[in-house]
Structure prediction request, 1018 residues.
Amino acid sequence: MVVKFGLLGSLVVHDGTEPRPVTGPKVRVLLAALLLQANRTVSRDALKEALWGDAVPASADAALANHLTRLRRVLATADGGTDERLRTVAPGYQLIVHEGELDADAFETRVRAVRQAHQEEDWEAVRRETDLALCLWRGSPLADLAPFSETEAPALRVHQLVEARLQALEWSFDAELCLGRHHEAVAPLTTLAGEHPLREGFHRRLMLALHRSGRQAEAFSVFHRLRRNLVEELGAEPGSAVREAYAEVLAGEPAPRPRPRSASASARPPFQLPCEGDAFTGRAAEVAAVRALLGVRGEGSAGTGRTGPERPGSGGDGGTGRGAGPGAGADTGTGFGGVGAVGGAGAASGPGGVGAVGGAGADGGLGRAPSRVRAVVISGMGGVGKTALAVHVAHRVREAFPDGALYADLRGYCVGGARTAHELLARFLSDLGVHQDALPEDTDDRALLFRSALAERRVLLVLDNARNAAHVAPLLPAGGDSAALITSRQLLADLPGSAKVPLSPLPESDQHALLAKLAGSARVRSEPEALADIMAACGGLPLALHIVGGRLASRPSWPLALLAKRLTPHQGRLDTLAMGDFDVRRTFAMSYVAMRDSDQPLEREAARAFRLLGRVWSAHAVTPQSAAALLDVTEARAAAVLDVLADAHLVLNPEPDRYQLHDLLGEYAAQRDEEDTEEERTTALLRLLSWYAAALAAATLAATRETQSPPPLDAETVKKLSLPEFGDDDEAIRWTARELPAVRDALTLAGELGRSDIAWRLAVGLFGHASTHWWTGEWDACLEQAMRIARAHDDRLGQAWLHRRTAVAHGMAYRNEACLEHLRIALDLFTERGDLAAQASILGNMAAVYLQSEDSAQALVHAERSRDLYHEVGNTRGEALLLSRIADVRKLRGEPGLAAADYRRVIELVRGSGHGVFLATVLTNYGDVLRILGERDAAFASLAEALSIRLRMNDQGGTADCLVFTARAHHHFGEWEAARATWESCLELARRHNLAKQVDVCLEGLKHLAAQALRDER
Prediction:
C-alpha cells in the first residue's frame, strides 16, 4: 500500500499522486496527535492538551470541533472524497490508518527486517533493507511541529524513531565491513561520527574502516578523539567493543576476508528465553500444573544453570523471578495457590486444588508424559506474575524441547500497539532457518509454513502478553511435540485446545518470603505490625511487593512503618507503588484503557462498570442482580458485563455470580473520572442502595414470615429490580449475614446522601438476620444510626418503623422495659397513621414482652387485643402467631394441657411453611409443656427437633435458649449427669457469645444441681 501519511520529516498527507497541503498549525498538530495514536481512540482532553498545552481556553470545545471539521476536509480530499477516515469514538476520535500507510510504521517494519538479517549475518539483505528503510526518512520526525513535538509523548516517539535510524545505519555499516567495502564506508562514517561525537558505534566502525583501508594513523586519531569526548562530557571510558577495535588497530591485523552468510547460526537451536531473576518465590502448585500440562514430569534441574540473552523493554510480566527489563505494563510476580487448570484431554485434579493434565512423576526425570496440550494459558490481572511463572517454568523444561525455545513479547497491552502475527511469523520462521526470500506475503500462508516447520521439531514457544485468542492463534503449533506457553490478562477461554492456569494474588506466607528475599529476612521480621500493614496495602500483588521490596532494599535506613504509612489506601498509595519502570497504576491502565477504547460496545460498557464500581462500591462484591441496579441494565446484561471484566481480570470472581474489585484495582478505578458525571455516579449509587433496601425486605419476609412488611420505596422501581430469591428462612438469613458489611456501608451512604427513606428501610430490613443473630449487637447499632438519620430529616414513618424494630431488638435481648418503651412510642405513631395491621403486630409484641416478664394477665389482654385486630384486617398469619402467644399465656398461668393443645395447633400451621425460627420457638415451648405434663420422650423429641433447627441456622442465641430448656427437662426427670453436661455446654456457648442472661440462667441451674447433690448425699 502507498504511504499516505508522513511523520518522518515535515508532516505530509499524500493522495497517491501528489502531496496534499494541510494548512493551519492547529490542524497540523491535530493530525499529528491522531497519527501518533493511529487506530486508537484519542480523548478530547488529550487533543485539547496537544493543541493548547496547559493553557486550554474556555472556548476549546468549539475550537476543537472547528479544527476537526477542517481536518476531515483534508482527509476526504486525500481519500478521493470519502469521509470514513476520522471516526468519532467515545470519549474522543480515532484516525484509521491501514497497514503501510504511515511512513513511521513502514520505516520500523524495515528496521526490524534489517535487525533480522543482521542476526542471520545475511549482509546483502542488511544493505537492501537499510536502503528501503532510509528511503522513507525525509528528516527529523515532526520537524515542523514545535512546540508540540517537544512535549513528552511526541518527543519520546521522535527519539525512538531517530534511534531506530541510527541503529539501522550501524547495522548497515557492519554489512559494508563484512562485505569488504571498507573504503566506501569511510566517508559516511566520518560524517556520522562528527554529527554524533559520543556515539561509540559509529566511531568503532569508522576506526575499523580506516584501519582496513590502510589508514591506521587516522584510526588512532578517531579513538583518541572519542575517548577525550567521553571523558570530558561523561566522565567515562570507551566501552569494550571500542577497546577491542582499538586492539585490532594496534595489532595491525589485516582486514578479514569477506564472509558469506554463516550456516552455523541457523543450525544452532534458538534459545530466546529472558534471563530469570533470583527472587522467584513459591508457586509450587502452579509450576507443577504447568509442567504437567506441557507433558513434562518431575522437577529435575534442566536449564537451571543456562540462560538466554536478556530482552529489555518487555510489555509483559517482569521483575520478580525474571531478569527481563520491565516495559510498560510490567507484571511482576511469584507463585501462589488456588490454581484451576482446565482443558486438555483427561484433565484431573492435582494436589492443592490444581487441575492439571498429567502429573509430576516420582522419578524426578524429564520424561514426556502422554497427556499434553498444545497451549497452556497463564492468565491473571496486571502485576500478578504471569511472565515470571512462564519464564521460570520454561527454563526448567528446556531439555524437554531440544529444538529450541522461541520467545516473543506480543505487546498486547502496550501503548505502542500489539505486534502482529504477520511480523512474528516472519521472525520465528527466520529463527528456525527459513530464508527471508522464502517467506510468503500472506499471513495465513506464513502460519501454514510455521506449523510445517514445527511438525518435526520439539520447540517451546513462550508467547508473552497476548491481547486475545485471535492474537496468538496463528502462532500455535498444530500438533506434534511442540508446545506453547502463553501469558495474558484475558482468560482466552475461546482459544481451542488450550489449558488454563489462572493466577490470583499471593498468600501471606509467600508475600512474606518474597519481601524477605528482596529486603532481608531480619529487616522484615523486625517490625511485624508494619510488615502486616505493607502486605495488606499491596493486596498480595507481586508487582506491588517487588516495588516495596526494592524501595526497602535501596533505603536501608527506612523503618518499615514509614513505608507502611505511605501505603495508606486512597492517600497516595498508587503514587508510592511506582519505581522506575515498575508502576502499578500504569500496569492497571494498560488493561483498563484497552477496554475503554475498545471497538466492542460490551467492553466499553464494562469499562463504565469498572469506573462505577471503583467510585461507589469498591469495597464490596456485587452480583448480576445488584450490578443490574447499579448500571441500570437487565440482569442478563449485567452478568455479561461482569464476565467481560472477570475475563480481563479487572474484577475477581472468587465464586459463582460474585464479583469484586481487588483492593488496588478498586483504588485505581476510583480515580477514573472519564465520561461519568457526579450526578450520574450519585444516581447509580442510589439505584444500588434502593436494591439493597428491596433485597433486605425480601430476605426478612422469607426469614420471619412477618405479618406486615414496610412499604417499598417505590412500587415501580422495585418492580424493575432483579431481587434474590430465597428457598427458606435459613437461606435468607445466610444471604443477609454475607451482605451485612455492605449493608452497613449502604446505611452510612444513604445518610450522607440525605436519603432517610432508604436508610431506615436498610436497618429495618435486618430483622430477619437478627432473628438468629440479635446477640451480636450489629442490628442495634444499625437501628440507632438509622434513627439519628430519620430524626435529622423529620421522617415520621421511618421513626415509627425504627421504634417498632428497636423494640424487637430489646425484646430479643430480654431488655423488657426498654422494649415496652419503644413499643408504646411505635403504637402511638402507627395509631396516628391509622395502620391497624401495625397496631396488631405491636400489641402482639407487647404480649410477648409481658410473657417474658411473667405478667400473664397483661400478656393475655394484649394478645387478645392483637388477635381481634388481626381478625379485623383479615390477617390469618397474624392470628396463628397470636395463638402461640395465647399458648404461652396458658403455660405461664399453669394450664399446661390447654397450652399443649394450642402449641400442637400452631406447629401444624407452621410446619412446612419454611419459617424455621418460629417453628423452633414453638417446639421449644411445646417441649417444656410436655416436661410439665411428665411426657419425657415426647418432650425430648420436641426439644431435639428445635435444637437441630437452631444449629442448622447457626442461631447461637436460640441454641442457648433450647439448651436451657433441655437442661431443665433433664433436671426435672432426675437425670443429673445429663443435666450438668447440658448446663455446662450452654454456659460455654453463652460466655463465648456474650449472652449475659443465659450465663446467669446456666449458673443458677448448676447451683441447683449442686444443691440437689448435697441433698442426695444426706
